[in-house]
Amino acid sequence: MAGVDIVIEEKKDDGVDRQKVCPFLLRVFVSNTGHHSKLSDFNKGNTPQNELQIYTWKDATLHELTQLVKEVNPEARRKGTKFSFSFVYPDARAPVYRLREIGVTTTGVKGPDDLKTLNQARFSIGDFMDIAITAPDSWNSGRKGGYNNRTRPY
């Protein structure tokens, strides 16, 4: 009996050969208020002022995009800073835009959405990305039993 070689290849479902595939322009709107941009800011061909332009691929993860935003936004580098990601896209049935939340990452903390890719989140080229950044002292203060510098339990 002849020897049989078994070759097992690991296949990435949505992997892209970044050496062969040209990146696309992802228009990202970042808000440091902890809230997403108003959808009315996208009407009539307008967009919010706080735009980042990122060239990327559909296999980019939310963690990877978080790192890119932190490069240009120093205040977002603090441990515990929360990034809430959403897609903003035109409604096919009405002349308005819709927002769909896709995941959350936190600086310095591994989370379930870190490895989610644009492809897994059903990104379509032409969609915008909106990121609401929340500083750690803002979202920690509302937690039960938590406190910040202004309010201390007695």
From TrEMBL:
GO-annotated molecular function: transcription corepressor activity
Family, as annotated: Belongs to the SAP18 family.
Residue runs in coiled coils: none
CC terms in the record's Gene Ontology section: nucleus
Name of this protein: 18 kDa Sin3-associated polypeptide
InterPro entries with a match to the protein in the record: SAP18, SAP18_sf
Keyword Transcription found: yes
Keywords per UniProt: Repressor, Transcription, Transcription regulation
